[in-house]
Amino acid sequence: MNQPTLVFLVLPILGILLRAFYNVFLHPLRNYPGPFLCRATFLKWMLVQCQGKSSNYLQAMHKKYGHVVRIEPNVLSFIDGQAWPDIYGHKTGHRTGAAAGANARGNLPKSSYAVRTNANGYADIVNVPTEADHRRMRRLMNHMFSASAIAGQQPIIRKYVDILIARLHAKAALGERVDIVMWYKNLTTARKNEFDFATLRAKERITQGITMEKHDFMSYMLKYNDEKGMSEGELMSNSSVLIIAGSETTAIYLSGITYHLMLNPRVMKKLTHLVRSTFASEDDITPNLVTELEYLTAVLKEGGRTYPPVPSGLPRQTTKGGSFIVNQVVPEGTVVYVHPMSINLSPMNFADPLEFVPERWLKDPPAKYANDNLEATQPFSVGPKSCIGRNLAMAEMRLILARMVWNFDLELCDESRGWKGSQLVFNVWEKKPLIVKVTSRWRDGQRGKS
Ligand code: HEM
């Protein structure tokens, strides 16, 4: 072997082997369980992710190794409910001085590889690098999601739900089958644009300020935008992030629920009966009244458990001196996360974890589900960086779902059987079409006259 071959071939291989040896036998995380290849090199997990198989693989690994798995040399995945507050929750414990570090828990910083920058050069609430700046943005954006701001948006939501329902009635009349993922996506995207988040219109909207008495979402933010608020560039960045964060997730969430309802006739029948017997007419299905339907909310929560729109872990990094996670100090600089699909579907947290059982979320659940660890499921995450749009999303989804089952009988078409199981995950779901036969409840066209 000549010298260049030695340098270009043998040395890198030797480097990889030495690194793998260090990772397995000397690394601070060496005592954490996990598959050998994952503990030795990041390549194994990278390959699994590129194949879109991360969700099933990590679920299997948690089944084998328990509540914490070392999935890359420097990455730990958790499925103990306590990991949510410890990693993402509000900070508790000592913040400064000698006792800081291992004693402190919660709100760990986002791991550096998860932080991206924006095309316009301004940060948005998701990628803003400092805690102080995040708080500044969040404080201002909170106004957009107050109870009164959400109530003010109800006519807009209603307008788009009306359009969805009318178009689905037209499809039903023609006997056409629909891709419900696409229909939900169209609805939530159209509605978000109307909220004036759209970047093209956002600039114009920001310039108008609140002088026009326009009570859209943006006005709630602009009203409080003083010198401690956001620059024009930041407002623009956040307008885009709101569209992305808000529309697709809601559509995915609803698609998952619709799929599970169609697979579970018992639940579908119970929900349909509840909605159709509670309201005398479709006009009575209002945001306030649907909130009172406990079973409807339980269906939504079970949907968030069985098909979380964000199925992959949101990476955070342990801090100086290590961070306290699920009763142990995890060494400084480790990337940690809760893996939603694994925690939600683990028998460690739920009875019949693979079944769609909304009853587990009722105030008085059947005995079999009384010991479920409901806090283990957090589709909106927890803590200071959890979903700011949670209440809006829940209000919107309650209304859409109630109106859907009020109007239609839904049937899963053969080509979409196995829809969920066949989907790959590339950080987010692949979002395959979900083909549904939609039958109007009023086959004779007497819609709403029941
Ligand atoms: C069912 C629908 C939704 C789900 C499942 C969902 C889920 C999430 C999750 C898991 C996070 C945490 C992300 C992280 O830690 O990096 C998040 C953050 C966020 N979500 Fe949602 N979301 C939904 C709907 C919405 C809606 C409707 C909006 C707004 C219109 C929205 C706006 C945001 C924003 C701005 C953040 C960043 C918050 C921060 O960093 O302080 N989301 N969402």
TrEMBL record:
Q: Which residues bind heme?
A: C387
Q: Fetch the InterPro entries from UniProt.
A: Cyt_P450, Cyt_P450_CS, Cyt_P450_E_grp-I, Cyt_P450_sf, Cytochrome_P450_monoxygenase
Q: Which UniProt keywords apply?
A: Heme, Iron, Metal-binding, Monooxygenase, Oxidoreductase
| A GO MF term | oxidoreductase activity, acting on paired donors, with incorporation or reduction of molecular oxygen
**Which cofactors are named for this entry?**
heme
CDD domains per UniProt: CYP60B-like (cd11058)
Q: Name one Pfam family in it.
A: p450
Q: Would I find Membrane among this entry's keywords?
A: no
In the record, the note on similarity to other proteins reads:
Belongs to the cytochrome P450 family.
Q: What is this protein called?
A: Cytochrome P450
Its ancestry begins with: Eukaryota, Fungi, Dikarya, Ascomycota, Pezizomycotina
